[in-house]
Design brief:
- By secondary structure, the protein is α/β, with parallel strands linked by helices.
- It has six domains: 81 residues, Arc Repressor Mutant, subunit A, CATH 1.10.10; 95 residues, Arc Repressor Mutant, subunit A, CATH 1.10.10.10; 97 residues, Orthogonal Bundle (PTS-regulatory domain, PRD), CATH 1.10.1790; 109 residues, PTS-regulatory domain, PRD (Orthogonal Bundle); 96 residues, 3-Layer(aba) Sandwich (Rossmann fold); 140 residues, Mannitol-specific EII, Chain A, CATH 3.40.930.10.
- Helix content is 56%, strand content 11%.
- Strands 9-8-10-11 form a four-stranded parallel beta sheet, covered by helices on one side. A four-stranded mixed beta sheet has the order 12-14-15-13. Strands 3-5-4 form a three-stranded antiparallel beta sheet.
- A hairpin with a 2-residue loop joins strand 4 and strand 5.
- Helix 15 packs across helix 16.
- The longest helix has 30 residues.
Length: 649
């Protein structure tokens, strides 16, 4: 059994290696990848060989070169190959055993199962032990009597187990037809649910005036596929409740009609009502034209009250502009659906969770705060995928309320000739209006370059001075011009953000709050760094405990190298950051990190929270920067020197 576990760990590390390279799309050294996975560079080389063996001879899932490794053209095929199929991997065999148990109400014979899988009886016994571990929290039990094994539990609980297997076949929340077939079996009627069924379902829901959440629709179609497969095996749900809302009946009729048309399966009342509830609570939202009063009429008063209170607290705590009526009502409708899903343990996966967390840590942190408040008031469990949906609501609100002063100003230098300068300004406004604001146009052939004080200068003539803010463009704007201006604007924004970060960080670091060499374990790292700040009178022991509690809500590993543990309340006597360097990397949440920054914020530095938090994460999202800092930061002076050097570029 130990060997099987080691095989699973090795395969999981190979998949994670491939996933890291596929997401980044750039070169990475063996040493860098070894740090990310917590193995040796030699292991990385063996993993690369194994991953490339998954694809056809001559194919390349991972390319090798002088700069290290990067994802090749067949990386996606290798990920799918690693996810299962009939490869005989321990995970695949485990899933096949579970499928056999689910398909056999009277149980399976251990010896016959071993013969069918071409393994020993002892191996199947070990797999059954792993099945028992897999059943935690599913309301299912595994019974063993002599040579027979049987699953006991409700049909709904068995479907949840199938859903868990399907998600286990996926990578980072993505969904594909192959994963569904591996879960339900190649002959499954449910595997046909993708394609025409989904297209017609989305079209009919749209015709009813609903917005359809495409991020979650595949997850719901997976449940429809599971239901169709179980009904085809005479394992339908019991009849639905007598009190059915009009919307449930309407959506249920659509699903039933499409199931007959595309799948040849007739769903009973229980399945129609269950699947309609899933659709209504997971993937649809009211149309944009719905009046506020209509939206409120669909809300339970307790839900609206809880959402309103926690949103108003979050707006004050983080100084974010989210306390708007439309935002509160839409989020409340989402939370009400979430509450219904939680009662059925019907969680929604979100394939954007990881990218939202690493790219928008501040928005994700606001979402964690809101989710924590909802947990306290409504008892909704906290899952990262569900928190990510709240983060999408928050991000959408903040994007809509972003102020115009975030635009960069620009001056166009274009010597006057007929209306040429007017045409150019019109082209710039049309192509770049969301990134820059033209505040002046110079039509002289010899402008006073020194007096132009806008963020950018877009000139059709050679400038008398040089600078990063000056961009040479053509009189008739080209696509290349647009790209160069956008790139220059991006560099200026980043430089300003990092300059602000450098100023803030130099205030908040202290050589007495630095550790090189952290022991594994989130609790141990947080307590060690916390003790340094407690000794300096920055925080008390209660802050450390609350930082530990925050870690339990959602991992603060915002990138694959950096964790930023903190308490949600800003109760420090002053803002300070304790830094811990882990070399090699240490486990943290579901990944590994090399830098831990325990942040203590004070009430007086509330506005600095966003700058420090988000931009600090940005610095450590670049693998090369992390490696440079970690390798050379053997003491505090070295850490600060390298951090400043990275920030300054």
């Amino acid at each position: 059994m130990r060997a099987l576990a080691e095989d699973d760990v090795t395969r999981a590390r190979q998949d994670r290696l491939l996933g890291i390279l596929a997401r980044d799309g750039s070169w990475a050294t063996a040493a860098t990848l070894a740090d990310a996975l917590g193995v040796t560079p030699r292991s990385i080389r063996s993993y690369v060989t194994a991953v490339n063996a998954r694809v056809v001879p001559g194919g390349s899932a991972i390319e090798s070169g002088p700069q290290g490794y990067r994802a090749g053209a067949e990386a996606g095929a290798a990920l799918r190959a690693g996810a299962g199929g009939e490869s005989g991997t321990p995970r695949d065999r485990l899933h096949r055993v579970v499928r056999s148990l689910l398909d056999a109400p009277d149980g399976v014979d251990v010896h016959e199962t071993a013969e069918r899988l071409h393994v020993s009886t002892a191996t199947v016994d070990a797999d059954l032990a792993r099945v028992r571990a897999l059943l935690g929290g599913t309301e299912l039990t595994l019974e063993r009597s002599a040579d027979r094994a049987r699953l006991r539990g409700t049909e709904m609980a068995q479907r949840r187990l199938l859903s868990r297997l399907a998600h286990d076949e996926m990578d980072a929340g993505s969904f594909d037809l192959g994963a569904l077939r591996r879960t339900l079996g190649e002959g499954s009627v449910g595997a046909q649910a993708f394609g025409p069924f989904k297209t017609d379902l989305v079209a009919e829901l749209g015709a009813l005036g609903y917005f359809v959440n495409e991020i979650g629709i595949s997850d719901v179609v997976m449940h429809i596929a599971i239901a169709a497969d179980r009904v085809a095996r005479d394992r339908g749900l019991e009849g639905g409740a007598s009190a059915e809302r009009p919307a449930q009946s309407e959506v249920g009729e659509i699903i039933a009609r499409l199931a007959v048309r595309h799948l040849g399966v007739e769903l009973g009342p229980g399945d129609r009502q269950h699947l309609a509830t899933l659709v209504l609570t997971r993937v649809v939202a009211p149309g944009a034209g719905d009046p506020v009063d209509d939206a409120r009429a669909r809300l339970e008063p307790d839900v609206e009250k809880a959402v309103r209170e926690v949103v108003e607290r979050a707006a004050g705590q983080f100084l974010v502009d989210i306390a708007h009526e439309d935002f509160i009502l839409r989020l409340a409708l989402h939370v009400q659906n979430l509450l219904h899903r939680s009662r059925e343990q019907a969680w929604s996966r979100n394939p954007l969770t990881r990218s939202l967390k690493s790219t928008y840590p501040m928005i994700f942190e606001v979402a964690v705060y809101i989710a924590s408040g909802l947990n306290e008031s409504l008892g909704i469990p906290l899952l990262d995928d569900e928190i990510a949906y709240i983060a999408m609501h928050v991000g959408g609100r903040l994007e809509r309320s972003r102020q115009a002063d975030q635009l960069l100003t620009a001056t166009i230098v274009c010597p006057g000739y007929y209306e040429l300068h007017e045409l150019l300004r019109s082209s710039v406004d049309r192509s770049l209006g969301q990134a820059i604001e033209v505040t002046g146009v110079e039509t002289r052939v010899d402008p006073d370059w020194g007096s132009i004080d806008t963020d950018l200068v877009l000139t059709t003539i050679d400038p008398a001075v040089a600078g990063d803010r000056i961009v040479r463009i053509q009189p008739f704007l080209t696509e290349s011009d647009v790209e160069r201006v956008q790139a220059a604007a991006g560099r200026i924004r980043r430089a300003r953000r990092l300059a602000r970060l450098r100023t803030e960080l130099e205030r908040y670091f202290d050589p007495h709050a630095f550790v090189h060499g952290l022991e594994p374990g989130e609790d141990a790292a947080i307590r060690r760094l916390g003790s340094l700040l407690v000794a300096r009178g920055v925080i008390d022991d209660d802050y450390v405990e609350r930082a530990l509690q925050r870690e339990q809500l959602s991992s603060t590993a915002f990138t694959e190298a950096l964790a930023v543990p903190h308490a949600m309340g800003m109760t420090a006597t002053r803002t300070e950051i304790a830094i811990g360097i882990a070399d090699p990397s240490i486990p943290w949440g579901e990944g590994r990190v090399q830098v831990v920054a325990l942040v203590a914020f004070s009430e007086t530095d509330r506005e600095a929270f966003q700058t420090v938090f988000e931009q600090f994460v940005e610095v450590f999202s670049e693998r090369e920067s992390v490696q440079r800092i970690v390798r050379r930061a053997t003491d505090f002076a070295g850490f600060l020197d390298e951090l400043v050097a990275v920030i300054d570029g």
